[in-house]
Every structure is written in structure tokens, then in C-alpha cells.
Amino acid sequence: SYIHYDLSYPRNTSARGRTFAKLLGNGFTTANLTDPSELPCLFDTDATETDEVKKGGTWHQATNSLRLVLCERKDLKCKQTDANTVFFAVIHRKFPNYLDLPLRYERHFMVWSATPPFHVLGISQHPILMANETTSGWTQSQTWDDDPANAATVAHTKMHKNATEPYGGKDYWAYFTYTVSIAYAWARTGIEEVGDMSVGYLDDEVVLGIGIDDKGQGFARARAGDLVQCLRACPGRAGAEGDDR
Q1: Cα-based angle 150, 151, 157 (whole degrees, multiple of 5)
Q2: Could you identify which of 61, 93, 192, 211 might form a hypothetical disulfide with 57, taking C-beta atoms 3.0 to 4.6 angstroms apart as the criterion?
Q3: Mean pLDDT, all residues of the chain
Q4: Could you tell me which of 90, 181, 92 has the C-alpha nearest to residue 135?
Q5: CA distance 91 to 180
């Protein structure tokens, strides 16, 4: 088994950057297995992208990882190999409020190679929200701007003096949400090894466990291929051309 225990951007000499190690047992791990030539993929966005209280976000791995074969299970020509297999997991970019308590967790998916030294390959270009998910950082009308009926209600209400959010439309159902686990939605028999349940294909469904306002929970289902699309490619190894990136 392997573990990420730091995903910070190496902004100074004291920051380690990505730290990835193998568990040895009895509380011990190997040294950092990250390729020393690997360039950071979690760019130092803190200095240029701030939230409403002018504080930047910090990166944290939020869930376990799953192995993903980059073709569809229904494709009989697709066979799992090292070349077409990756790991993916949810990472959060956490923003604090004035009291340094969580204001918002932005959900991103990170993908890395399934073979040593496990190069990071890509990360979601934008935060990922489920279809009806609400979160702080955006107004209610912004959150539901893709709902035609709600947009019409908001537009009509805005014509009235002193109208305020949510302008008669839908309100938040959660102040902030965060992802705690991911698992393939298995509905098949014939699984020989428990480890096989953590291997899936692009057309397999993933169940996401979602925490709600530190007091409730919810679940979402989505195709694995939908979760890892629209990735920003990572820069790879310094000075490398044409190798594993």
C-alpha cells in the first residue's frame, strides 16, 4: 500500500511538495518516492486566486484512490495493461473564513501513473460540483443559473425594489460539502479478489460519499470517465521530452 501525506506546493525551502511513500507496517514508511525531477502540478495559485475573505486555498487529498483502466468495459478489445491504467482520487482545495474555519471545499480529481515512480499526470481544470450541489462562495442565483424556471423567477423578482438573494428562487441546501470516499458501484458477481473491486473502467459508475455541513451525509453516482475528463496536464519531469508525463 502507498500513501500521499503531503500535496502542498513547494513555495519555500521548508515545503516538501508532493510526498508519496510506501507503507512498511508497524507505523513505518519508506522515504519519499516522488521522482525528484517531477515538476509540481499543484501550482501556487494561493497568491493570485483568493476567496471573498482574501485568503488562498490549500490542497489536501480527500479520498482513497481507485485504479482506472482508460477504456470501456464493454469494449472487448480493451485489456488492462500498465500503459492504459492510472490511479485517481479526489483532492480538495480548502478555503477558510475569517476565523480560519472551512468556508468551502473545492473538489478536483487528480490522476497519476499506476507504475513507479507514480508521476502525476493531470488534475481537474475546474472545481467539480454534482448536478444539484450547492456550496458557499457563489450566490444562490449563481448556483442555480442553469435551471430555466429558477432563472425566470430570479429575473422577475430582481425587478422589485430591495429584492435580495435568493430572489424568490431556490436557496442553498448545504453551506459547504466535501468528499470523503469513492468506490466503484459494483453490481456484478464473480469477483475473485477484494482488490479487484478497486479496479474499474471508464464506463463504470463511481459512488461518491459526500459530507454535508459537518452534520449530514449524501451520495452521488457518476461515470468514472465523466469524473476524469477536462483535466489540466501536469508538466512532468524537468528536462524530459517524450517520456511518461
Answers
A1: 90
A2: 93
A3: 82
A4: 92
A5: 10
